[in-house]
Structures are given as structure tokens and as C-alpha cells.
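Next comes this protein.

***
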Amino acid sequence: MSDPALDALAESARNRGLKLVRSRVRTPGKRRFGKVGLTDASGKGVLGMDSKGPTATPEDVEAYLRSLDANDWGASLGVPAAKPAERAPGPAKAATPRKRLAEPKPKAAPKPAPKPTPRIRGAAPADAPRLVELIRSLGHEIDEGTVRRNLLALKKSGETPLVATLADAVVGLCGLHRTVTPHRDAPLGRITILVVAAEAQGQGIGRMLVDAAEQWMRNQGCKMVEVTSNDRRSEAHAFYRHMGFERTSIRFAKTL
């Protein structure tokens, strides 16, 4: 190493509380020419020193000081530092690279809970409170007692309405009716009410209710199904057209 490089090495040693000792031999080719060593503050040899002076190369000293820096880094992480061993005189060996501590793997985000599957079943009297909410959302004023009585009457006639559930919560209602008319050769099926809660729309529940209602009507011998819808409910009209219904007449009603 050049003198500036040795000066830098001496400064690095001082920063570690050590002293760099340089050989006094100035003739190239002679033993101990260019050799250096390290002593502590008391003058005791630490690396590359014998009774006649320094025996190590500058590269030996540089590698030793690097090992001290590595041990300090490990201690800052709670890793016990190994005590550097005295190097024997001779050619410097390449320092073995230290393995980097593996960075902790980020925790995987928890998987979202699977969405509940919509289910269709017959309405029960216990569903009355929720059915009142759904029916009122269509603008029909009704109370819980009336809904319970109507469910019992419809059950006796074999026309129990269908409800859709999500995780046991009622989110849809479909009313069923079968009627015989003088002018048709088969019973007529009718969807008397169809409503899906706003928070459950867009999941195909309306289609599931209509499909289940149509299957019930086929089992009752019906060859046609009809549904009525308020003039103001344009979104419902689009849904029925999408389901294959066609507008065939105008409905008239009169209060008795």
C-alpha cells in the first residue's frame, strides 16, 4: 500500500483503540519490508507482531479491522460476536463473507370470508317482521299480524310464498298463485309479489326466486305465468323483460 493508504489504515486502527506499527525496513526485497502490525493502547501485540517487529501485510490488518466492524454490526442485532483470532504470519486469506440475516417474510393477508350462498325456502310465520320491511319497501302498508295471518291462509291453500335467505337472513320474497279461468285450457300461474332487499340486489336472487316460482307453477299444471308491476317501477319492468316476460295487457284496478 502507498503511504496515504497506510495513513488511512492507521486512522482506522486508531478509531478502534489500536495502533498501526509499520516496519522500519526501507529496502525492497528484504524481510519485513512493507510489513505492519497492530498493538493495543498498552503496546501489546494484537495482530502481526513478534519480538522483532511487524509481520503482517496491510491487507491482513485491513481484513482484521473489517472483521471487528462486522462483529459490532452483529452485536447491534443481538448476535454474539466471535473473538477475532490472531493471524499467523503469511499471505492474507480472503475473508469469508458473512451470511446476511434473512429478512422476515411479510405476513400473508387473511383471506376474506366466503360470501354466503343464497337459498330459497318456503316462508314461515317467524319471517313476518322481516317480510313487513320488504313489503313496505314497495309502498304497501301492512302490519306484522296481517302478514302472519296471510301466511297461514296461503299455507292452507298450498300457496306458501317463497323467501330467499343469505346466511339465514331473509332478503327476498316471492308470492305464488294458481288460478283456473274460464277462457284457458290450463291453470294460470301468477307471481303476486316479488321484492329483493336493496343490500342483496345484484347477486341473482331475483332470478332464483322467479325460477323457483316457475318450477312450482309447472308442477301445478300451469302453462303460463303472469306478473303485474307498478307503472313507476321501470327497473322491475326491465328485469321481467330480461327474464323473458312480455307486456301483453294493461291492468286496471278498483278499490272495493
